[in-house]
């Protein structure tokens, strides 16, 4: 166990690896990030969760020095992420990675490792990310999932202290996804700091202890996985009723949507909602209950789906 690992294991680490303070980023008239505050301490594994266009990739690109904030301050390892000296211990996999098509997997790994003073041994890197069988293959001929695995592996080539993984498992099959999770877990167990983005709470749940929920450029929640699960656990109770539901004052109703003659009631507790409907003598037929998607839960959370 390294000194840092021991410190992290003992919960003593207060070192901030990445920090955003009042960060705003605009692209023309699009406000991608709106006064975001976030601190990532050494040894943490943080999941950034949010729907499409929430601002996750933009935040990652600010932390990794790819972009500059419009307002506010971003720090990586105590300094400006745009200064290469502060990126020496950084590893990153952006959402889309351009790999030189004519180079072989082994050559790309060699090329990236050569940029670091103390890289991970090639065999270990290939092994951890299941790339052994692909070493002699040109990257241009790899499948989307294989390219993704290589791109994520490259983030770990220089033995980083902190890695940013932007939707690392997109396009991976179940087995490859599990292998990748295992590699991330083992990096974290050795004291590494991880920030990963995802659309899926399940993915973040499999890895992270802390979830930062982002929607429309703002941090909506920063909490444990269990707390966030409670926050975004929304069910949809659908029914057909000959009468409008307004006026029934149903307890636990977060929002109502209508498609044709079907009414969809969004609620944190579907059982209670069904009891409410019966108690208040609401006439209904064809009752159906299902969990909502994360996107729907976010609409409710951001107040876009008012009753
Ligand atoms: N280079 C750019 N030029 C213009 N608008 C941009 C640019 N990059 C991002 N945006 C906009 O900023 C907002 C946030 O985008 P971002 O890619 O950060 O979201 P995201 O949460 O990563 O989404 P996804 O999950 O779909 O990748 C979106 O409205 C997007 O269209």
UniProtKB/TrEMBL annotation:
GO BP, sorted A to Z: response to antibiotic
PROSITE patterns assigned: ABC_TRANSPORTER_1, ABC_TRANSPORTER_2
Where in the cell?
Answer: Cell membrane
Predominant location category: membrane
Q: Pfam families, alphabetically?
A: ABC_tran
Q: Is ATP-binding given among the entry's keywords?
A: yes
GO CC annotations? Answer: plasma membrane
Task: Extract the GO molecular function terms from the UniProt entry.
Answer: ATP binding; ATP hydrolysis activity
Q: How does it sit in the membrane?
A: Peripheral membrane protein
Name the keywords, alphabetized: Antibiotic resistance, ATP-binding, Nucleotide-binding, Transport
Q: Which InterPro entries match?
A: AAA+_ATPase (IPR003593), ABC_transporter-like_ATP-bd (IPR003439), ABC_transporter-like_CS (IPR017871), ABC_transporter_ATP-binding (IPR050763), P-loop_NTPase (IPR027417)
List residues of the ABC transporter domain: 18-241
The lineage's top-level taxon is: Bacteria
**Which PANTHER family has this protein been placed in?**
ABC TRANSPORTER ATP-BINDING PROTEIN
Q: What is this protein called?
A: ABC-2 type transport system ATP-binding protein
Q: Which organism is it from?
A: Actinoplanes xinjiangensis
């Amino acid at each position: 166990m390294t000194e840092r690992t021991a410190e992290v294991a003992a919960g003593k680490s207060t070192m901030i690896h990445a920090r955003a303070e009042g960060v705003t980023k605009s692209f023309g008239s699009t406000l991608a990030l709106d006064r975001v505050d976030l601190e990532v301490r050494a040894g943490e594994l943080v999941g950034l969760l949010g729907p499409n266009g929430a601002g996750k990739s933009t935040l990652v690109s600010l932390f990794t020095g790819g972009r500059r904030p419009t307002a506010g301050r971003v720090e990586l390892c105590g300094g400006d992420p745009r200064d290469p000296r502060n990126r020496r211990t950084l590893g990153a996999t952006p959402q889309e990675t351009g790999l030189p098509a004519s180079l072989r997997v082994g050559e790309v790994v060699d090329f990236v490792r050569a940029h670091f003073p103390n890289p991970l041994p090639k065999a270990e890197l290939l092994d951890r990310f299941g790339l052994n069988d692909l070493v002699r293959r040109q990257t241009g001929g790899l499948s989307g999932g294989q390219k993704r695995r290589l791109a994520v592996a490259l983030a770990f080539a220089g033995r980083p202290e902190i890695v940013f993984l932007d939707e690392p498992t997109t396009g991976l099959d179940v087995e490859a996804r599990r292998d990748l999770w295992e590699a991330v877990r083992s990096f974290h167990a050795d004291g590494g700091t991880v920030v990963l983005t995802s659309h899926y709470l399940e993915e973040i749940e499999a890895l992270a202890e802390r979830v930062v929920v982002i929607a429309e450029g703002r941090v909506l929640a920063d909490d444990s996985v269990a707390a966030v699960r409670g926050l975004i656990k929304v069910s949809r109770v659908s029914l057909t009723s000959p009468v409008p539901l307004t006026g029934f004052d149903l307890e636990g109703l977060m929002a109502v949507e209508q498609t044709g003659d079907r009414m969809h009631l969004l609620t944190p507790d579907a059982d209670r909602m069904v009891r409410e409907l019966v108690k208040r003598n609401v006439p209904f037929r064809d009752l159906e209950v299902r969990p909502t998607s994360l996107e729907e839960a976010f609409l409710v959370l951001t107040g876009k789906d008012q009753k």
